[in-house]
Amino acid sequence: MVLFHSMGSVSLYTFLAVVALLALGTFSNPIRVAYSFVRQLVTSRMYLLHVAMVVFILFLNSVEMKIEQRMTYNYDFTGVIYSFEKGFVAGVQSLFENPVLTVILGFMYIVVFQSLLLSSLGIYSFEGRYRMFYATCYAIMINYLVAIPFYLFFPVNEVWSYDTSVRFIMLDVFPSFETQYRALSGLDNCFPSLHTSISVTLAVLAIRSGNKRWAWFTGISAVLIIFAIFYMGIHWLSDMLAGTVLGLLASAAGLKLSAYTASRNTLADSKATSKLVKQPAYDTKRSPEV
């Protein structure tokens, strides 16, 4: 079954998924949640700065692929990875391949993955969990900043392109993947797996946030997305293990950095409030007119 005919259909599904996830994560009207997020961007320079930094890092990831095309560095570490893992991914495919599972996992890999990030920012903003908002921003940036050098200097090709016993199942649900989506994900940008690291990051932060519904959903989603990277024939076991470690470290670092940012914002807010309280509405020392 073909789910995605173009990036337009991916965008539509993503929009609908974000709306549903905002409602699930907050039990509130998604429009209210979106409005709260936009209002924070408009009224808080710190919010806007962090979102802008995340957008910049995502842009930097696309620039990385252009830089890679111009590099004369020709090493390929795919054979090294294959020598350790052999037919692991092929075994997963032969054991689990099923048309219904293909649709579910294709949707998880393409749509739910990116919807989780967008929804997390909206949910934490709406609930006033500002530390978790900043932690998410920092952790995403750390994931990409650590992964990009590996993509440049430790290239590993996707499993299906190297192991002839592995099929690229993604084409069953997204036939134009190579022409429509490939620009967002280089063929040799495998180690570490960002689908794994970011999914783990979002799950860990959701658990720490105290929002149990969101923690359960992101945790289950992380498991399905990680399984999807093997099922679709994209990532090696080594990619997943490295991605898991990266996700755990990035989430821990994000929480540390966000504690500092949140404390500074609280201090700034308290100072601003104290100034307003201390400022009299009129001059009480002024002598009354005779």
From TrEMBL:
Where on the tree of life does the source sit, at the highest rank? Bacteria
For this UniProt entry, which segments traverse the membrane? Answer: 12-35, 47-63, 100-126, 133-154, 214-234, 240-262
Q: Which Pfam families does its entry note?
A: PAP2_3
Keywords for the protein's UniProt record, in alphabetical order: Membrane, Transmembrane, Transmembrane helix
Where is each Inositolphosphotransferase Aur1/Ipt1 domain found?
92-252
InterPro entries, per this entry?
Aur1/Ipt1, PAP2/HPO_sf
One cellular component term (GO) for this entry is:
membrane
What is the protein's given name?
Answer: Phosphatase PAP2 family protein
What is the organism of origin for this protein?
Paenibacillus roseus
